[in-house]
Amino acid sequence: MFYLLLIFVILFTFLAIKRLEFSVQLLIFALPAYLIRFNIGPLPSNILEVMIWVVFLVWFFANFSELKANVIESFKRLSGRSADGRIKIDYPFGTELILLVVIGFVAAGVAGFSNAGLGIWKAYFFEPALLYIVVINVFTSPVILSGTQRSEESIIDGQTYHRSFAGAQDDKIKYILWPLCFSALAVSLVAVYQKLTGDLIDNPYWAAAATRRAVSFFGYPNAVGLYLGPLILLFIGWLGYARLVCRAPKKFQVVIASSIALSFIAIVFAKSSGALLGVSAGLAVFCLLANRRARLAIISIAALAAIGCAAIPLARHSVADKILLRDFSGTVRRIGWNDTWQMLSDGRLVFGAGLANFQAAVRPYHQRGFYISDGTPDFWQRLPADAALRARAWQPLEIYLYPHNIFLNFWSELGFAGLLLFIWIIGKYLFVSVQNLKSKIKNQDGQQYYLTLGLMAAMVVVVIHGLVDVPYFKNDLAVMFWLLIAMLAFIDLRNKEVKQSL
Questions:
Q1: Number of domains comprising the chain
Q2: 310 φ, ψ to 5°?
Q3: Residues of the domain holding 360
Q4: Are residues 208 and 264 in the same domain?
């Protein structure tokens, strides 16, 4: 195993040195590679982390002189202008990213700088920040980019402007979208195979035909929905752009559409209710803002679904139980949220529990289990006096790694400042999306309205699914979160530069 890993790292490093953009694409495709874990001395690591460090270090040393010059020049800037009179564009969401890394490090300190806490800080905050920097540079700005791309200058009102996102730069988003597309296809195909055969599922309960749930590479079903849910809406926006705007070849459209369909089927086979709810919410937002035909379609579907639920009592009760969290999984989550709130309220409202310290902090407040009705007549009336019934109906509860709510997750891990920062990032992302949807600026490839709308809807999926799950605190999901932000940043920076040039 060691020698296979060593050979892979050597070959990947060689690829990064020769073609950095290809190595970044391979990394994006291989986001689930965090599952291949090993130790570097006493330190735990995984393939994804190694790939991030390789691409960052190759990029850093290849552009060291330019980076050094930019750092020196940044001290000479006055009122947003560098010493040579060119406008210098800062990293989009750069301040937020720095604050998240800093707050995460403080949260590791709250937990006593444990190995687990520092590992989470490195994997979920610091390393995604490194990759974000590389992606922004490799796929956009030629100012500090190794390779053969050329920058452009234009003189407007006597001033020289640097056009780092001109022309074909808009097309760079596809270099992120295609790896994500093939990654989604790989994850989905494995999930479909598992559902059809029962193979490659370690958990006997999920592998059994009657209770089968696909897990793909991840080992548990909800991870399939967490990974594929946002990508479905992203790809729907991409397909709209490819089909309606840039008239992409049919074979490309078929691949994108196949990825959308198979990803949705995989989520259904995983029985991830949270992901289906998130995808439904994201699709509703997308259709309401896309065009008149899509708007009428989604309104009609919603009306028919409402009528069906109203007319069929079983469906009505099932939907109500899901929405009101009265089913088994909903009950587990409500209890977990209550435990978390008690823990936070007892002197941890400001700093939270600290990174990787949630289980230890919430243990004194943990509800050890609850009773589940087995359908016995007068179950709840008989329960107090029937010891055998209590034994059968008792459902013990484990202490999960996180409270399964995206806002409580950030609060418990990063403290109140981390929660506020996360809300700010989501709010800013949605605000920037809406501003770009309103602008409808056109470039040589056509209007990027559908791409922006897909990115916006993808974040809606993250937030809605995050109400009942953990859509950030995992290696692949943290990286994907910042890839969504990077792609939105590409479009926003391009539109701003077009506005400046007009």
A1: 3
A2: -70, -35
A3: 328-396
A4: yes
